[in-house]
Amino acid sequence: MIQLRPRAAVQYGAAFAAALMALTGCSSGASGPRSMSAAGASASAPSPDPLTWSECGKNLECATIKVPREYTEPDGAQIPLAVMRHRATDPGHRIGSLIFNPGGPGVSATETLRNLPKTAGTPGAFSPAVLAKFDVIAMDPRGVGESQAVRCLTDEQRAEAAGTDFDPSVPGGKPLPRLLADAATFTDGCAEHQSKKFLASLSTDNVARDIDQVRSALGEDKITYYGLSYGTVVGPMYATLFPHRVRQMVLDAPVDTNQWFGDPLPFQNDVAVASERTLNAWFKTCRTEGTAVCPFGAGDPQAAFDALIDTLEAKPLKIAPVKGATPGGELDGAMALETTRALAGEQNTWPLLTSALLAARDGNGAPLYTLWSSVTVSPFPVPTAMFEAHTAVRCADWQTPAGIAAHQAAATKAVTEARRIGTRAAYSALNCARWPAPNKDRVTKPLTGAGTPPALVVAGRLDPVTPHHWAENMTRTLDSAVLLTREGVGHGSYGTNSCVTRAVDAALIRGTHPADGTVCETDQPATTRPLVLANR
User: Name one GO molecular function term (predicted).
Assistant: First the structure.
């Protein structure tokens, strides 16, 4: 999870931090051993008892619900799930319960809801109008957060992995033998720390069934749903398994669900290319604004950036410890590249990126290093606690090629199509290739949501994680959907753009939608103007 957040990033990077928390994982192509044969399995699950709530914060209540580990064995082992509720602030006009999934997979919904007052203006931040009319319900999915979060590495292994030097000149960040060894360590650790049956149960279809258990325990006939990033896989799954239980649904920064449940390698390539496009957008804006606004690179930011990465790889910058911020260390080229990838993916953090690059160019690596400490949530293999849950969920859903040749070919394609960012995507599905707990009954039929009200699908034109064509594909796959596009760079749109926020509020509250194909302009033009001309 994000541990450190520089003060400058709080001002300019709140949206960036929340977007990172919501990044999807990987995948592609739909195939598998069953279609919807398990769709009715949840019908045989015993009805849960009503939730017993206890106060756990301002206007917050917490509860635990026990659900079957496998819905094909409703009387078998159970899993406790953490649930949190933010009561409607205008109970006299309450519409019902709104369940949301903030993404990841691996992001804690309860933690996100608890931090809601601190995250205004970030993707997925509910408006006062929505908070007035809905009980907002957060459920930590199985294996995530307070719902028995997956653990695969020891504290020592996490620290060692986080401190490993990544070489951006090598696809995947490390030589292939080291990548294979790391994958073995990770997956062996998962099998050692977790029950294989539990790991196999972490699939999205089970998460959707868990949501319906929560709905039943709440006493609701229907739910309203908002999903961000990976949450847009959960939502269509729920709508497909339980169409009669959906009141309204909004899907923000959508994943192509037809890709999610198959070969993840083309999926990862799409993510890398999308991220490369947002970095190129920063380069283009820096050039267009000119050196008076963007002095980095003196008119050629690409060349200056590549030179900086090479310089930092050859001679990393020493970083002195700062109490309460960073223990100190070294900033190398790969760390600078990863931080740049994250900051370039949200146009509100472009000024912060420019400042940090200027500082590093002038020999001060502290800003980039501190930011690197904060951007360890990623669709690529960054060793964090969230990454363990992230990997476990996607491996339960994906059908990943086992042969290394497919991964080598995908790595070559990634670094060809995304010259800078592709190195972070290459080989990032190796953990799933040797996953110790295969899920043999995943749902893989197209998630059409047939029988539900039209869904509002919201997509950013330049999203660093979920490219716009995924939203177009989702809109075609769903039986009934409306596509709303936000111009500009960023992952997630609701709460960050006034036009989108009005449309989403209308969909959630009144069930009304804009015309299909409507486009929302950015509220503020992107700029690369630095916050402070560091060391100048």
Answer: hydrolase activity
